[in-house]
Structure prediction request, 492 residues.
Amino acid sequence: MATNTELIRVVDVKKEYNNGTVKALNGCNLTVHKGEVVAIIGASGSGKSTLLRCLNMLETPTSGHIYFDGVDLADKNVDLNLHRRKMGMVFQHFNLFPHKTVMQNITLAPVHLKLKTKAEAQQKGKELLERIGLADKANEYPNMLSGGQKQRIAIIRALAMEPEVMLFDEPTSALDPEMVNEVLDLMRDLAKNGMTMVVVTHEMGFAREVASRVIFMDSGQILEENTPNMLFDNPQNPRLKDFLSKVL
Amino acid sequence: MDWEGIFGNLSPASFFNFSFLGEYGTYILQALGYTLLLAVVSVLLAVIPALLLAIMRLSKNKLVKGISGAYIAIFRSTPLLVQLSIIYFGLFGAVRIPNSWQLFGFIPMSRFIPGVVALALNSSAYVAEIFRGGILAVDIGQTEAARSLGLSSWSAMKLVVLPQAIKNVLPALANEIVTMVKESSICSTLGMAELMFAAKTVAGATYITLAPYTVAAVIYFAINYPASKAIEAIERRMRRGDKH
Prediction:
């Protein structure tokens, strides 16, 4: 793929805790191009969430570089707040603001950061809510919503910032089984519309169907990286084979 | 049994000799007003510095964190009476407040202000710890969500974390007022005419040594007990509200 479509490039990122006794990431390299959907799979504790959280610097790497739009986010002189606006993030536990209504959740950041007027942000919020069929929930507080509704609203809260990439950290792991699909459907819809996505997930079916590339991580390293069909049907690394035999 | 030998001339009746109430009732009520004013004003004054101290305490900057930590340590590890004396004779020995300034006609500012300042400085150390707990109790995911949207750490604190933290600490803050209603009795030692001082004065003037203090105790109790029960009830309701 041509380099001008490169959006994120991770170069030799390491993350250590407790003065190096715990190595969460042990030299990761990864490139994400515009329009790609990259799924990261692996067992719990393999470092996949840590890697994702390094992409927008919620986790500060111990060493290495994270280029986003050509800017190294790991450089201390970079204004992270400016770049984070362009990287939407969706969390396992939704993290909606409980003291704000659904609409206020969506408009808070765009209005506070003066990217939109309140009226513009609300218009955009209304459109997004209509898109996910929750327009009637605009003035509800998050505690009145189901898990699936919360997560879909968390997704459009991130979309309201009009990001260049969406990062998903196990977006369906905290959901009741019957609510998983409504969230995956929305993510499918985003992928279809060309959104660049990096998704840490346990949903192998989703990874296979939607991802353009799947990455397998184990003990802080990327051990295998391939198209979904190749990775799932013809795994090379013994640890990936072992992992797939347990989850599929 | 020789009760007289054990208790001297102290009879059970001396607890309940309320003959002074007619003459000194108004004075005691005024003193109660003084006490409540001391407690409420000093806790309210403590809120802003306490918030600042709490945020400083949670800062990554070691110096900022250290200053706040030292302040909290000093005010929590020395007696309030000592703090009050140093502030009254030291700080307000240098900064004189005219004796003619009066609040509601019976509270001389020259005593009230040093009292309130000392109580507020002391209280801010305790309230800072309440706020710190309240801030830490807000799920870290809230900050992460706010930061991931591009908000600065201060905006995330102001718009997302603090509103949730303050709601959580309101009962503890109300409890701090209850504590201050009691603690402010120490101001009697410096001549502030609050409830404890009034009891002492009445005892001196009437030679009824015990009953004025009984009255003071009953008044303190009648204010603080229902107040803490009400706070408990509000806390229970808030917890219920958080569940869904």
Summary: Chain B has a mean pLDDT of 88.
